[in-house]
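Cast an eye over this sequence plus tokens and walk me through the fold:

***
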Amino acid sequence: MATIEITPDQDAVVAEIFIAAPPERVFQAITDPAQTSQWWGQKGVYRITERHADFRVGGKYSSVGVGADGTPFRVDGEYLEIDPPRLLVQTWTASWRGDVKTIVRWELEPQTVHGLQHRGPQKVGTGTVVRVRQQGFAGDPKAAVDHAQGWTRVLGWMQAFVEKGETVDTRE
């Protein structure tokens, strides 16, 4: 489950989740348009139907989707920083917010999980801590709250896709 907080100035949403997969695999799920379209959404909520990306610094991306009520939406942006598999920074302009631009920063940190077994501490697996920071909500606290709820869902969907292969079509 993702942990989410809104900064005290209500300008940023900060989310974090652990995914039991290496950073390279998680980065791929975030950046490959074919994979993103498989996991970003849920029946009865919203889903991405089309995604395009020119994956390079200065390159543009777009995601087109449909809400639960059939209303179309779009998110467009530009890649600002790319350092696979640990960092991705991009602008984010959502159709439902007009021309308001925010910045989304994805940080992926490898982590080894240790556990106790009858012979003492043992390495039990590796994974990735994913931190997402979306900044630019100053003056719109409702948008910050809405995006915090959105990131909780999105990170959970990504975790289920990477760890279990769950997609928009197979998710309950």
Summary: Residues 141-164 form the longest helix (24 residues). The CA atoms of residues 97 and 143 lie 9 Å apart. Residues 3-44+83-164 form a domain with the Alpha-D-Glucose-1,6-Bisphosphate; Chain A, domain 4 fold (CATH 3.30.530.20). The mean pLDDT is 92.
